[in-house]
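Q: Here's a chain of 157 amino acids. Please give me its 3D structure as tokens.
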Amino acid sequence: MVYKPYFKYLDGPPPLSVSCRRMVRLEEVDVLGIVWHGRYAGYFEDGREEIGRQFGLSYIEFKQAGALLPIRTLHVDYLLPLHYLETFDLETTMHWHEAARLNIEYKIFNSERRLTTQGYSVQMMIDLEGNLLLEAPAFFRDFQKRWRLGELTPCGY
């Protein structure tokens, strides 16, 4: 299969990516021993939290700045199954956008480096009362400025 990106390139800096490795746990599989389809949203969330830790964009930091990040769109393409005890790599990529939103793409590779699942999410920024933010919090605008200038490096944890 030829990979086709979900987000078009916008006039901005290159995307930011992180990877993490996981193993399929018993609670994540169905009676056939394959990962139940509903678990992939959780895997994607693992990637979203990892990119947040690596670049200082955790949910706690957003909440402290008066913003929440509900999912607006979640899309999953299932290509190959993952099985119980299988190790897989999750690659998470955040794409540039000027608006108060996060565009994140996910790719899951099995132990043979075959693409098993891909998808994306869009998260909109809202205030603590649930109103859509037209401008991102100041800490995120600063993050965008550093991203555009190429000054970002993963900070780890």
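Q: Can you summarize the key feature?
A: The two ends are 34 Å apart (CA to CA).
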